[in-house]
Amino acid sequence: MLSGCLASGLRADEPPTLTLLAEVWPPYMMLDDRGEPVGADLDLARTVLLQLGYRTEVKVLPWKRAVKQAQLKEGDAVLDIFYVETRQSWLHYPEEPLSQSGEVLFYPAARPVQLARISDLQGLRIGTQADYAYSKAFLTDPGVIRMPMTGEGNAVKQLHLMMAGRLDGVVLNERVGRYLLHTQGLQDQVRNHLFPLTDDDRNFLAFTHKPGHDQLAIRFSEALKRFKQTPAYQELLARYHL
């Protein structure tokens, strides 16, 4: 066993490394000035996993590829994934989420969009993100013109398409959308509704179906709950203005 560890480049006394699959989703996951992954939920996940004895590496991918690699067990966990019952066939969800913030509609202040019910969006061109877990009502309404995109920077592209009049609105996570608006200088030109367009607003670190990950999800949840009771957790949130 020892020779096998040495041959693979891992010393017997080194902690195991988990690969986290993630997309850029600020302020929860983003890249710093050196191109290194950082963010509120990423830092939180790494801190708790380190307490459990795991090192981490991050694979930054478009969301569609992150989901696909998780299904193929080409990573150990997916960062900031919503709960969907059918995903349990390839993910182990902890009980405790990393954070809570759902998807809402952003629209230009100069072209207000009314939204009291999903049917209010009928006939409107609404930008969405491919493979996101929106509410069933939003996904199945035949009158809504959903225009999905995927790939790096797609949310920012959609905001600019909206400002150019090519979209009537964009569905984004509320905190992520507000963060992106500030980076683009659009915070005074765009508004958002609070009407939820997701059935569940919890953001999880969910583990793939590799051996032992079912128990790891349980241990992670318990450790995460404990860490959230500490001053260090409040300091982490403050670091990202949350």
From TrEMBL:
Domain annotation Solute-binding protein family 3/N-terminal: ranges: 24-240
SUPFAM superfamilies linked: Periplasmic binding protein-like II
Pfam families: SBP_bac_3 (PF00497)
InterPro entries: Solute-binding_3/MltF_N
Entries under PANTHER family matching the protein: PERIPLASMIC SUBSTRATE BINDING PROTEIN FAMILY 3, SOLUTE-BINDING PROTEIN FAMILY 3_N-TERMINAL DOMAIN-CONTAINING PROTEIN
Protein name, entry field: ABC transporter substrate-binding protein
Phylogenetic lineage: Bacteria, Pseudomonadati, Pseudomonadota, Gammaproteobacteria, Aeromonadales
